[in-house]
C-alpha cells in the first residue's frame, strides 16, 4: 500500500504514529534486567573510578536524578569516558537470556498499521539485542536511541563540552521528534518513566504511562502492561473505508480476536 492510500485508510484514527520506550515498557521490570543494569553501573563506578563500593549505589542514584544517567553525570563532571566503553561495560554483561520472546506483543504490534518507533535512552546495540530477544525486531519502522540524540559526542575535545542528551530533556525530545518526523498531536508516546511522560506531554504528544496502575498528571492513559493497549486505547485500530467516506471501526469480533491473542496468560 502506498503512503497516500495508507493515510486515507488511517484517516479516522486519532494517531498516525506510536512511539514506544524500550526498557521496562516493552518488557516488565520483573525480568531483572533493570536490577542487573544498576549492579553493572555500580561495578563500573567502583572498577573504573575507584569509588568506594558502599557509595556506588547512592552515587548512581544521584547522577541519574541530576544528569539523567551515570554516563551523562560523569562526563558533565569532567570524567573522560567514551559512551561506547560505558555502554559495552554496563550492557555487555547483561543477562539478556532473561528477556523471552513475546509472541502476544508481536501479534498486537503487527495488528497496528500506523508507524511504530522505538525511542530509548539506551545505545543501538542494546536496543537491537532486546528487540531480538523479544522477537520484535521486524515490528518497528525506526529506532531513535542514544546515538540519535548524541551524534557528535566523539568529536568533543573535553568531556563536559557537549552535554549528554537523554529523555526527559526537552532538547532530546526535540531531536527525537525531528528524527521521527511526526506531528506530536497525532502521535501516541508510551513510556514507563513519569518524567519522560511529562516531557512528552510538554511536546504536545498523547501520553501513555506504562507499568503503573495510576495515571500521572501528564499521562493521558495508563497501562499496567503494554499488552493492554487494545483494551485501553481501541481507537488506535479505527480505520476508514477505501474510496467512499464511510468510516468504520474495526468490528468487535476482529478486535476481540486481537485481544484474545494478546491476552496475558497468568
Ligand atoms: Mg523505560
From TrEMBL:
InterPro entries: HAD-like_sf, HAD-SF_hydro_IA, HAD_sf, Pyr-5-nucltdase. GO terms for molecular function: hydrolase activity. Transmembrane segments: none annotated. Keywords: Hydrolase. It comes from the Eukaryota. NCBIfam families: HAD-SF-IA-v3, Pyr-5-nucltdase. This is Haloacid dehalogenase-like hydrolase (HAD) superfamily protein.
Amino acid at each position: 500500500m502506498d503512503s497516500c492510500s495508507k493515510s486515507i485508510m488511517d484517516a479516522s484514527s486519532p494517531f498516525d504514529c506510536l512511539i514506544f520506550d524500550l526498557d521496562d515498557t516493552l518488557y516488565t521490570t520483573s525480568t531483572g534486567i533493570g536490577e542487573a543494569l544498576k549492579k553493572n553501573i555500580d561495578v563500573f563506578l567502583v572498577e573504573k573510578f575507584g569509588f568506594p563500593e558502599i557509595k556506588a549505589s547512592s552515587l548512581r542514584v544521584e547522577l541519574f536524578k541530576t544528569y539523567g544517567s551515570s554516563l551523562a553525570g560523569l562526563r558533565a563532571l569532567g570524567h573522560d569516558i567514551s559512551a561506547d566503553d560505558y555502554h559495552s561495560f554496563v550492557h555487555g554483561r547483561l543477562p539478556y537470556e532473561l528477556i523471552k520472546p513475546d509472541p502476544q506483543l508481536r501479534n498486537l504490534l503487527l495488528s497496528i498499521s500506523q508507524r511504530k518507533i522505538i525511542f530509548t535512552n539506551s545505545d543501538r546495540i542494546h536496543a537491537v539485542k532486546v528487540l531480538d530477544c523479544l522477537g520484535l525486531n521486524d515490528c518497528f519502522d525506526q529506532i531513535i536511541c542514544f546515538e540519535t540524540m548524541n551524534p557528535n559526542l566523539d568529536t568533543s575535545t573535553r568531556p563536559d563540552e557537549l552535554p549528554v542528551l537523554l529523555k526527559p530533556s526537552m532538547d532530546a525530545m526535540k531531536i527525537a521528534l525531528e528524527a521521527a518526523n511526526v506531528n506530536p498531536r497525532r502521535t501516541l508516546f508510551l513510556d514507563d518513566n513519569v518524567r519522560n511522560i511529562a516531557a512528552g506531554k510538554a511536546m504536545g504528544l498523547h501520553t501513555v504511562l506504562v507499568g503503573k496502575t495510576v495515571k500521572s498528571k501528564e499521562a493521558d492513559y495508563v497501562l499496567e502492561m503494554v499488552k493492554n493497549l487494545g483494551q485501553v486505547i481501541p481507537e488506535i485500530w479505527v480505520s476508514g473505508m477505501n474510496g467512499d467516506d464511510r468510516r468504520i471501526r474495526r468490528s468487535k469480533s476482529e478486535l476481540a480476536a486481537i485481544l484474545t491473542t494478546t491476552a496475558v496468560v497468568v
